[in-house]
Amino acid sequence: MDPVRNPYAPGAGQRPPELAGRDTELSAFDVVLERIARGRPERSLVLTGLRGVGKTVLLNQLRSAAISRGWGTGKIEARPDQSLRRPLSAALHMALRELRHPDQESTDAVLGTLKAFAQRQAPADAKVRDRWQPGIDVPASAGRADSGDMEIDLVELLSDVAGLAADVGKGVALFIDEMQDVQPDDVSAICAACHELSQQGSPLIVVGAGLPHLPAVLSASKSYSERLFRYLRIDRLDRAAADRALLAPAEREDVEFDTAALDALYAAADGYPYFVQAYGKVTWDVAASSPITAADVAMAAPAAEAELAVGFFGSRYDRATPAEREYMHAMAELGGPTGAAVGTSDVAVALGRKPASLSPARDSLIKKGLVYSAERGQIAFTVPHFGRYLLSHATD
């Protein structure tokens, strides 16, 4: 098979050639956009799921849907050690440019507020060279979105941005990837802003994506967040969707799969979109001709697994310290190849340690996005099949 024509695309956030199994989520978002366009109230949206299920791909697709309707959009990727002021400022600046409000004076007024919000990141006595300049050519406004209190400032800023969007009959959508990494004060500010804007019926929504414990992060910040957001769990593809993700791109290249090959690919990938693309890509390169057979899949599997071991699993494992690796290996032994959630007390017993002495390793793994607290007293891997990977690699 010609590798140049290989249609499969495993990659972080890279859109697959066929976005299969997400029709329900895309249709639901179209309803959200249409309701807001008609002045109807709607909740902001939160996508949750393990790594490799396509949250970022779906987030980007939702953004494209908003752009196609003439909305202003901006996207950021949260980091645990970064305040949201700067990335939010850049994202909202882009959203305002996309809105193309015809009245420059009104636009400049909001841009002035945005600039004041952005510059409030630096201390009042900071030297000019230490002040971040957001690239906005209007003077910073005074007295709005510049108090230094993130919650107050974000409510004021987003209210002004939403007002500008309402003037032109459009909306603004702010997309936040890795939302579980947003700092606590910023999470509280986002929830408060969404609450205020929903009460005002303003045409601005936040669409977040993050790991399975993101709802708990939001709920810990504001109790009403359970009613503030609509939560969508993004999971594995069912068999029909996984087959479609493989067959549709192949058909465009006049290539077929036999049924046994599809059976073998679904068993290997377990329905996870990233794995579907990874196994599909290597199988295509190995196959001599169409139709692709189960023998081709069997021949390709070791190479696909070796690539995943380095790029998908190994890159994450390498970020862990020896103490953290010991903790994860204990989790794998307890949870088995499926990577089932395990009790933190059980991990302590398995390692012969007191639970309190393992808290630093566990907390660091959570911050690195390698594990998450599935529920109180439970811990699980954020990466599918990670337990299987660890069981096949001796502790080092």
Automatic annotation (TrEMBL):
PROSITE patterns: CYTC. It holds the Pfam family AAA_16. Residues 1-23 are annotated as: Disordered. SUPFAM superfamilies: P-loop containing nucleoside triphosphate hydrolases (SSF52540). The keyword Transcription does not apply. It comes from the Bacteria. This is Cytochrome c domain-containing protein. Signal peptide: none annotated. GO terms for molecular function: electron transfer activity; heme binding; metal ion binding. Residues 166-317 form the Cytochrome c domain. Keywords: Heme, Iron, Metal-binding.
